[in-house]
């Protein structure tokens, strides 16, 4: 869905979820300003059984002069746009409308269409709004109240930026010019005394699994940021390596995962715990997620949420094999020999983008990569849009260059920034084609179980593969072990 497609409506009511949080208000306000600038009659409203009363929210609304209204009745508008929530869900008061549109980042099983933008890989609805507003050429930074409202939405929905899971979230942080002093005041009006007690009680009633060195904590309903704070605290306990904290929220459950050990990545665990019933992710040490109550009940009808967490965490620990590359491959019997296909990739000469010696940051789906532009450094664009630097000498051995420019659509097109500035530039317009002529052979086979591989290069972080994926090792070195996604493997390798 594009925002401009909604401009055919003149009377637009933006509705955020009941008892709105910072993300709902920030997103709703930015959209309110957009439609105002397009000359529409707009209102920003929320319903539910009570008016908002959290001090940070009241301060935000007052300082940024956000014209949000609490309503219990609504005259049927031409367009009702639900934001940070979905029409018909339990956390949004029902109002009649001629037409309904939605913008949301919660996974409730619904997909995007002409009248809905649902992107559950983003940590906040504010990030979706940022992206949609930019696509319309709307200048978000022109008014600091819009940029600050969006930033605070992302900030609060990502547990103070710690649970961010998508490069677009980082792009937004880099882009926005915000009122830092207001954000700082807001973070000092975050919790009530009652919520402090809730956090205390949750910790007293913790569950502890000695074997896994893991703690599972259920908190009473409270601000989801409390979950992150409890998690960060609990992880400092000497006998706890992993913590999972969750509570009920109006439409489901929020959870925070923390880990300080390399064999359990918090983002993997969050994804595993929310698989098919919500969405989750983040970083290897901190992650978060959401479970939709309706999806949960569909799949786990007779289970309590506690029982679900206990069972599912057990399953997680039983679900994967671990391979340490330095130990080599012990059983080579089922591996077959493969060679690389002459697949076309993209590459960029760093000096085509930046002057020699410029330090820059390349943002990709898998995180940021730092390089210094030089005649000897090229960037390879991999199958899924991942980018990594490669030495010219090595590149020329493995690839044959072509003059044609390289075009491919990626979920997140890689971008680059100079370290001393903040202008972003797209990488793909500089990319040209190259064909793989690498004739080194690898041994590979299908994984039998989900597997974590600790490679020789990076002991602190593992590669994770599902049972469909392939495990490979170099034919002349069985300690050079890595995983390749099924689709990638089957398109870029061939059995000898
Ligand atoms: Mn949100």
Give structural attributes.
14 helices, inorganic pyrophosphatase (n-terminal core), alpha+beta, 28% helix, 496 residues, 4 domains, single chain, six-stranded mixed β-sheet, 29 strands, binds manganese (II) ion, Diaminopimelate Epimerase, Chain A, domain 1, six-stranded parallel β-sheet, 30% strand
Structural notes for this entry:
The structure is a single chain. This protein has 14 helices and 29 strands. The chain has 496 residues and is an alpha+beta fold. It has four domains: 185 residues, Alpha-Beta Complex (inorganic pyrophosphatase (n-terminal core)), CATH 3.90.1640.10; 127 residues, Roll (Diaminopimelate Epimerase, Chain A, domain 1); 74 residues, no CATH class; 92 residues, no CATH class. It has a six-stranded parallel β-sheet, with helices on one face. Strands 7-8-9-10-12-11 form a six-stranded mixed β-sheet, sandwiched between helices. Strands 28-27-24-14-29 form a five-stranded antiparallel β-sheet. The protein binds manganese (II) ion (MN). The site of manganese (II) ion has 6 residues, from loops.
Annotate the secondary structure layout.
Blueprint: E1 11-16, H1 22-37, E2 41-46, H2 55-63, E3 68-70, E4 79-83, E5 99-104, E6 116-118, H3 125-135, H4 144-157, H5 167-175, H6 180-187, H7 193-204, E7 207-209, E8 214-219, H8 224-234, E9 242-249, E10 252-259, H9 266-274, E11 278-282, E12 286-292, H10 293-299, H11 305-318, E13 321-324, E14 336-340, E15 344-349, H12 350-353, E16 359-364, E17 367-372, E18 377-381, E19 387-391, H13 392-398, E20 399-405, E21 415-418, E22 424-426, E23 432-436, E24 441-446, E25 451-454, E26 463-465, E27 470-474, E28 477-484, H14 486-492, E29 493-495
Parallel strand pairs: 1-2, 1-4, 2-3, 4-5, 5-6, 8-9, 13-25
Antiparallel strand pairs: 7-8, 9-10, 10-12, 11-12, 14-24, 14-29, 15-18, 15-23, 16-17, 16-21, 18-19, 20-23, 21-22, 24-27, 25-26, 27-28
Helix pairs in contact: 1-3, 1-4, 2-6, 3-4, 7-8
Bound molecules: manganese (II) ion (MN).
């Amino acid at each position: 869905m594009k925002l401009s497609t909604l401009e055919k409506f003149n009377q637009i009511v933006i509705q955020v979820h009941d008892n709105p949080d910072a993300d709902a208000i920030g997103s709703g306000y930015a959209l309110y300003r957009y439609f105002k600038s397009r000359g529409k009659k707009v209102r920003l409203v929320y319903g539910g059984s009570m008016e908002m009363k959290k001090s940070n929210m009241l301060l935000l609304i007052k300082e940024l002069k956000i014209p949000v209204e609490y309503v219990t009745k609504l005259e049927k508008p031409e367009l009702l746009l639900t934001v940070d929530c979905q029409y018909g869900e339990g956390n949004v008061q029902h109002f009649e409308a001629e037409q309904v549109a939605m913008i949301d980042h919660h996974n409730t099983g619904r997909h995007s269409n002409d009248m809905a933008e649902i992107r559950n890989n983003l940590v906040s609805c504010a990030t979706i709004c940022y992206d949609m507003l930019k696509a319309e050429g709307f200048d978000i930074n022109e008014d600091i109240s819009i940029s600050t409202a969006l930033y605070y939405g992302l900030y609060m929905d990502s547990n103070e930026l710690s649970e961010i899971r998508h490069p677009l979230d980082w792009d937004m942080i880099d882009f926005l010019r915000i009122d830092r002093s207001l954000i700082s005041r807001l973070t000092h009006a975050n919790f009530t005394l009652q919520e402090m007690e809730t956090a205390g009680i949750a910790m007293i009633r913790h569950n502890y699994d000695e074997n896994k060195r893991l703690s599972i904590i259920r908190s009473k309903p409270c601000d989801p940021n409390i979950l992150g704070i409890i998690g960060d605290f609990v992880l400092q306990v000497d006998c706890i390596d992993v913590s999972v904290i969750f509570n009920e929220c109006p439409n489901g459950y929020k959870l925070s995962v923390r880990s300080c050990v390399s064999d359990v990545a918090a983002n993997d665990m969050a994804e595993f715990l929310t698989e098919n019933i919500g969405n989750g992710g983040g970083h290897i040490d901190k992650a978060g997620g959401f479970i939709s109550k309706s999806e949960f009940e569909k799949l786990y009808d007779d289970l309590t949420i506690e029982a679900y967490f206990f069972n599912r965490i057990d399953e997680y620990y039983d679900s994967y094999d671990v391979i340490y590359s330095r130990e080599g491959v012990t059983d080579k019997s089922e591996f077959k020999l493969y060679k690389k296909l002459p697949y076309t990739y993209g590459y960029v000469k760093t000096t085509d983008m930046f002057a020699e010696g410029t330090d820059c940051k390349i943002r990709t789906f898998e995180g940021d990569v730092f390089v210094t532009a030089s005649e000897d450094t090229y960037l390879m664009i991999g199958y899924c849009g991942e980018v990594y630097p490669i030495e010219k000498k090595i590149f020329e051995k493995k690839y044959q260059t072509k003059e044609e420019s390289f075009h491919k659509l990626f979920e997140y097109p890689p971008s680059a920034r100079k370290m001393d500035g903040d202008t972003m530039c797209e990488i793909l317009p500089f990319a040209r084609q190259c064909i793989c002529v690498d004739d080194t052979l690898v041994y590979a086979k299908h994984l039998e179980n989900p597997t974590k591989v600790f490679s020789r290069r990076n002991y602190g972080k593992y590669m994770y593969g599902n049972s469909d994926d392939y495990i490979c090792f170099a034919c002349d070195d069985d300690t050079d072990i890595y995983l390749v996604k099924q689709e990638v493997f089957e398109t870029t390798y061939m059995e000898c």
